[in-house]
């Protein structure tokens, strides 16, 4: 049987000996103003810590304090470490770089998407890969995906009964989802339903993905086993989910910065308490995190009039309760992990001290500990051994993709002559090619609404891990591809033969191994470069990711071809090279 608890019997005996005075704690936070989540109130007391565990919280001071560090907390406030419950840890950054950066503003627990690890690792290596995160001073938990949210050629080989069950059996996997393939469920996919039942049998939560869903659809999803959802975009949509018994995570992200409006609309509807909600940044792109992670969302909630205790609970205790781990973390109480944030004021959720599993991540506003890099060697480098040819850049498709916003698209009828070497820069249509990362197949069309004055862009960053090449000039597109190939993955922009920006993505061609601060700068510059050339939206990274994502309307470019999401049909199939 796998060990599901971090402390063995001898540890537990040692912890209780501290209360008897025969063993000293390693750290005491003296006279702390701390958040008691059980009582939902601020209390004054002493927090005894032994290595990675809180062994006592209350009025008493240890009788044995030999070699114990004692810190006076009279003028500080202590809250539980923040939990990000819905992380997509591959938006150029990687699970390690994002977590290390987030820890400096108090977010020290991460519940993460496993999709890219499934796609980038050889079969059966993804689950062993995540085990190394268990030794981190930060806390990592995972989802298990039940679908790919695109049209993969070999999806049945990736999502198998055995693999899904193995993930659901792992104690660090807390949920199944997010369930972007719920239309398949509605249409009678009993294999998917059986996996959901298996998740329930393993006491895992099931996260929906239900943007714009009707009340009846939400009720059906609840009957099938969905337990929560994070896709509500209005107060009314939140209310409907609550009425149908779903747990609701309020989102504030780079493409859906909805939290102020959601709070306002819920208060107008007469909501009495926010204590049971959760908060998420929903895998935002790097620049969004310049101002913080969960601390930023707590601050917004407080500014919008949410009681500070409820605001802190939405990023800690409420999440821990929902995922059935409040006996371990999410609150300041005896027996929990020593994962705490120390604040100057309840009104300012950005901590000056951060403690995670008893280790200082930040002390007196200074970085103290760097976490260990995972071994990325199981993820193969993007080693492209084929050449993008002129013949690959044939664009005779009658139907194109038009961008409505960052991520929503619709079909349009192509009227211009796409046989030329370069498109006119007076309009916003670009050549668009999706090509297999192994060079086996391709699908091409035009993309309207991305840029007016961009020669070429190549990206190995996509939802399926295949290569996107787009732009006005076929020559520049090939040059961008060649540079991306040299980098072994990345996003490269070229205009009139000149390299204008690049972001190396050395981990499988999808994630960077650079620190988060550099990734933020790189992504910020990419936005500037593209906006200077006519990109009219806010988040080009999400645009690239979702060009092949079939969980959003209306038309996508996928491994199977040009795909109509609403009709669930391939309009034009991929062709072999």
From TrEMBL:
Q: Which family does it belong to?
A: Belongs to the metallo-dependent hydrolases superfamily. Adenine deaminase family.
Q: Which keywords does UniProt give here?
A: Hydrolase
Q: What organism does the record attribute this protein to?
A: Jeotgalibacillus marinus
Q: What EC numbers are recorded for this enzyme? A: 3.5.4.2
Protein name, as recorded? adenine deaminase
Indicate the segments forming the Amidohydrolase-related domain, all copies.
77-359
Q: What class of enzyme is it?
A: hydrolase
Q: Report domain Adenine deaminase C-terminal positions.
A: 407-568
InterPro entries in UniProt: Adenine_deam_C (IPR026912), Amidohydro-rel (IPR006680), Metal-dep_hydrolase_composite (IPR011059), Metal_Hydrolase (IPR032466)
Transmembrane ranges, per UniProt, are none
Reaction(s) catalysed by this chain, per the record, are: adenine + H2O + H(+) = hypoxanthine + NH4(+)
């Amino acid at each position: 049987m796998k060990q599901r608890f971090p402390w063995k019997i001898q540890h537990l005996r040692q912890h209780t000996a501290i209360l008897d005075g025969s063993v000293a704690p390693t750290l005491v936070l003296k006279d702390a103003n701390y958040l008691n989540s059980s009582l939902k109130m601020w209390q004054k007391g002493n927090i005894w810590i032994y290595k990675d565990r809180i062994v006592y919280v209350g009025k008493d001071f240890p009788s044995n304090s030999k070699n114990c560090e004692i810190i006076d907390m009279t003028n500080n406030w202590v809250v539980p470490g923040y939990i990000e419950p819905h992380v997509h840890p591959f938006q150029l950054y990687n699970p390690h770089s994002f977590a290390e950066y987030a820890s400096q503003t108090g977010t020290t627990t991460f519940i993460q998407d496993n999709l890219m690890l499934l796609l980038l690792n050889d079969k059966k290596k993804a689950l062993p890969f995540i085990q190394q995160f268990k030794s981190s001073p930060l806390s990592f938990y995972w989802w298990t995906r039940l679908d790919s949210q695109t049209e993969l050629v070999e999806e049945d080989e990736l999502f198998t009964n055995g693999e899904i069950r193995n993930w659901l059996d792992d104690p660090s996997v807390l949920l199944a989802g997010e369930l972007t393939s719920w239309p398949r469920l509605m249409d009678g996919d009993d294999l998917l339903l059986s996996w959901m039942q298996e998740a329930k049998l393993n006491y895992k939560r099931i996260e929906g993905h239900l943007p714009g869903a009707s009340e009846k659809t939400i009720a059906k999803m609840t009957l099938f086993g969905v337990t929560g959802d994070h896709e509500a975009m209005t107060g009314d949509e939140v209310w409907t989910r609550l009425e149908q018994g779903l747990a609701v995570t309020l989102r504030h992200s780079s493409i859906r910065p909805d939290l102020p409006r959601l709070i306002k609309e819920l208060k107008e509807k007469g909501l009495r308490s926010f204590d049971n909600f959760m908060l998420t940044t929903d895998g935002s792109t790097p620049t969004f995190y310049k101002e913080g992670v969960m601390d930023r969302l707590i601050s917004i909630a407080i500014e919008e009039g949410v009681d500070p205790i409820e605001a802190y609970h939405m990023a800690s205790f409420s999440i821990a309760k929902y995922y059935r781990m409040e006996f371990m973390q999410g609150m300041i109480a005896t027996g929990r992990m020593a994962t705490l944030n120390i604040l100057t004021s309840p009104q300012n959720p950005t901590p000056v001290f951060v403690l995670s599993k008893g280790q200082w991540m930040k002390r007196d506003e200074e970085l103290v500990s760097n976490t260990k890099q995972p071994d990325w060697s199981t993820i193969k480098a993007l080693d492209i051994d084929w050449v993008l040819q002129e013949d690959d850049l044939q664009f005779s498709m009658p139907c194109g993709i038009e961008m409505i916003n960052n991520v929503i698209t619709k079909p349009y009828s192509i009227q211009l002559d796409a046989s030329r070497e370069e498109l006119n820069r007076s309009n916003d249509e670009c050549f668009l090619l999706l090509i297999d990362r192994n060079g086996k197949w391709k699908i091409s069309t035009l993309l309207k609404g991305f840029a007016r004055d961009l020669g070429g862009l190549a990206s190995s960053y996509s939802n399926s891990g295949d290569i996107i090449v787009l732009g006005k000039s076929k020559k520049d597109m090939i040059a961008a591809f060649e540079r991306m190939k040299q980098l072994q993955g990345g996003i490269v922009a070229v205009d009139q033969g000149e390299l204008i920006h690049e972001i190396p993505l050395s981990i499988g061609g999808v994630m960077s191994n650079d620190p988060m601060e550099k990734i933020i700068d790189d992504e910020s510059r990419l936005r500037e470069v593209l906006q200077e050339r006519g990109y009219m939206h806010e988040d080009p990274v999400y645009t690239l990711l979702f060009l092949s994502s079939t969980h959003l309307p209306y038309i996508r470019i996928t491994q199977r071809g040009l795909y109509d999401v609403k009709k669930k049909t391939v309009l034009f199939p991929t062709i072999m090279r």
